[in-house]
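Today's session is about reading a structure prediction critically. Students often jump straight to the picture, but the first step is always the sequence itself: look for stretches that repeat, for charged clusters, for runs of hydrophobic residues. Only then move on to the predicted structure, which in these notes is written as discrete structure tokens rather than atom positions. Here is the chain we will use throughout the hour.
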Amino acid sequence: MKLILVLVLACPALAAAFSAGPCLPGVAFGRGGVSSVARPMARRAAHALRLPVAMAEFADVGGGGAVKKMVVEEGSGEVAQKGATVEVEYKGTIVENGWGTPQDVVECWLSSQQGMDVYKEAFIDGGVDGAKLLDLTEESLAGMGVSNKIHCKKLMAAVKRLQKQHEEVPVGAEFDSSEGKGPLSFKLGAGKVIKGWEVAVATMKAGEKAQVSCRADFAYGAEGLRKKTGEVRVPPFATLLFEMKLLKC
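Below is the predicted structure for this chain, in token form.
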């Protein structure tokens, strides 16, 4: 079996060489279980939402809800420690964005729009979650208090780019896997992997399989991930699902 980690990740500095796995430029990338009765019900609901699993199955493990994890199979070894060399089997898949709250939108998307942080309160007060973000219009922005026409046009252009970017790489697309390449080895805490991996792996035991969800600001962020050829593998601001198993720590 393979482990499943769901990560909503994002970090502009991580537009790395895809062939090396989820990584920084030039380097390698990178509990709460549920009952056997609840899991099938959650999976049916998740399928309807085009999500890998129901988020109710996940427990917050870092970033104020940015990184969440569900243990699929308990490990029997020690918990991974900072400074240890770990080995991980993984598969990465793009899923629907998990911006369920206005705070998610502000921290994952609005903060990446230059000079637009001034509208943080307007987005929160306006209840702009991930779904509402894609439905914004110049009129609705004006109603939220975005009176500067230049700012309004910039925000709308950014929304349209977001829509287009996620049309280019469909939900459910697998963008990376250790299968055929062997497990990924890296030093935990050395900054060689995306933030979501650092957070999630540090909560895992040797032999553990888990599902972890991370927001885009804990993965490939505003830049996304491209192959050396320029082909988009992970669109900007994407929410990711990783199937993972910690082999060694």
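Discussion point for the tutorial: DSSP finds seven helices and ten strands in the chain.
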